[in-house]
Amino acid sequence: MRSSGSGKSGGRGNYRGAGNDRDQKQGQGRPRKPRPEERRYDVGPGATKDGPKAGRGGAARGGAKGGPKRPQQGGRTEPARSREYETRVEERNRERYAGKKDVKLPKTFPGAEQEGERLQKVLARAGYGSRRACEELIEQARVEINGEIVLEQGRRVDPEKDEVKVDGLTVATQSYQFFSLNKPAGVVSTMEDPEGRQCLGDYVTNRETRLFHVGRLDTETEGVILLTNHGELAHRLTHPKYGVKKTYLAAIVGPIPRDLGKRLKDGIQLEDGYARADHFRVVEQTGKNYLVEVTLHEGRKHIVRRMLAEAGFPVEKLVRTSFGPITLGDQKSGWLRRLSNTEVGMLMQEVDL
Which residues are catalytic? Predict the structure, then answer.
């Protein structure tokens, strides 16, 4: 009769690795495969023989089939790809992609291969909204390039050469900036002043590009003065050939005769020649104090003050309320504002740009 202890021992004797003679003999002939609880894991920093610590398995990091082989713990290294195999792979890839460096993009319209930027990108940079909004402008036939209305999407333009218009107004396609400043009295119309007086440059600090003023205003004259980095536009706005009109409000003391406007329009003789106003009207009267509006296209120094003084009415206060299509509106004294795309387009239209 067998004892209970020997029965348990006999029941477990067939378990592999439990110490039977056959397993021991096999172990002497070849290396025994480790049991699951004895396997080591190459998991990452901090991995020990006790098992994985944290992180992803070796297969996920390149240890899967076809990936680079990594050294195992214990100094044993698995075989990597041979140098001959790597060379064959490189040669095959070189043959596969040889002659395919110049990839041609699909043509969406005639001439799509030309250099330049996409039209909707240029419009978006100029401030006409998102690229999708600019595509809608094109779909609505509101955009033209060099006088030709554009209907197809993806059209490319050269910002340096092509003329782009939206609703008939020219778009500033380059990195141009346009500002209007309500210049206060006492500010010098220069960007820098060696004498340390307050000047226009004090109102445009921290700008990404150098700006310059369009024309001048007397130190004591207030109102609209334009600042930009568009040299050609600034030149034309001040050139007598284009005759851009400027409007002023002048405070004078009356009474004034009824024919004052006619005299100013006919021309006032000054030391440097005749000066003529394009328009004159009385805006407001309070007793003997008058506020009159004078519009002219000349830009000579102190022109409005000299004309009214020569007519017998010295100016006590002078404000420029508009420069071409750019008006002062409710802009406060000393405030700088960026011109809208419509205003820039109207300025360019004024001087045939």
Answer: 218
